[in-house]
């Protein structure tokens, strides 16, 4: 099957669809100034691949290095703003309550800051802190001793960022809700994801197998292109407003 590339046709699917799911990835926030994982790491971090930093084993082996990497990402993410793509999704949800379920792999909080409600965050929240090991009675996150990373002064438990690392399970209820949205939507928009990280990427296949139309919005080819009925080549901040605004 050859995928179509016509935005007007996808607009017609959108108008017809009673239930819509959006699956967003790092490219969604690229135009807000948040680098994707596929973009080269910069400066101090250029010599590390994210896959080598974003794991529990990496954190246990060198907590300072991984904590400082996340601290630099937090710093960068707190100064950015939602772009026209985030705003277009949030405005659509406000015009059509209950019609669009937003599933994101992003940890930057930009969808929520644009006003999206009920966002299913598959990979957590970079600004949240939690304990590395099961907290004991002495572990109180608000009283962690400052450090790289902060720690419990009684038992030495370390604070880690509230993201899902490679190799970790996704939050169960969130994944269940995302799968339910994928199974029941009539149209799924897949925005700014390379489609290489599972189980998130599998949601596009779930939607397709359940009979939904799948449209990809990405300026480059992705691993999910074979699953798509439509490939809209362009960026999130340009295509989403054009697609969603009139509906
Ligand atoms: P990825 O980095 O693997 O791929 C990014 C994709 O976005 C690519 O396919 C690229 O072509 C596309 N892209 C680049 N600019 C775009 C734009 N302006 N508009 C639309 N698409 C654009 O990202 P991934 O597939 O999301 O997987 C990487 C993992 O790392 C995910 O878990 C992701 O959430 C996480 N991550 C999150 C953030 C964030 O929260 N902003 C940033 C980097 C990575």
Keywords:
alpha/beta; six-stranded parallel beta sheet; 247 residues; binds nicotinamide-adenine-dinucleotide; 9 helices; 8 strands; two-stranded antiparallel sheet
Q: Secondary-structure blueprint of this entry?
A:
Elements: H1 7-16, E1 20-24, H2 50-53, H3 56-61, H4 63-78, H5 84-95, E2 100-104, H6 110-114, E3 120-121, E4 124-131, E5 159-163, H7 172-184, E6 187-191, H8 202-209, E7 213-217, E8 230-232, H9 236-244
Parallel strand pairs: 1-2, 1-6, 2-3, 6-7, 7-8
Antiparallel strand pairs: 4-5
This protein binds nicotinamide-adenine-dinucleotide (NAD).
Structural description of this entry:
With 247 residues, the protein is an alpha/beta fold. 34% of the residues lie in helices and 15% in strands. It has nine helices and eight strands. It has helices spanning 7-16, 50-53, 56-61, 63-78, 84-95, 110-114, 172-184, 202-209, 236-244; strands at residues 20-24, 100-104, 120-121, 124-131, 159-163, 187-191, 213-217, 230-232. The strands form two sheets. The chain has a six-stranded parallel β-sheet, sandwiched between helices. The longest helix has 16 residues, at 63-78. The radius of gyration is 19 Å and the shape is elongated. The two termini are 28 Å apart. The structure holds nicotinamide-adenine-dinucleotide (NAD).
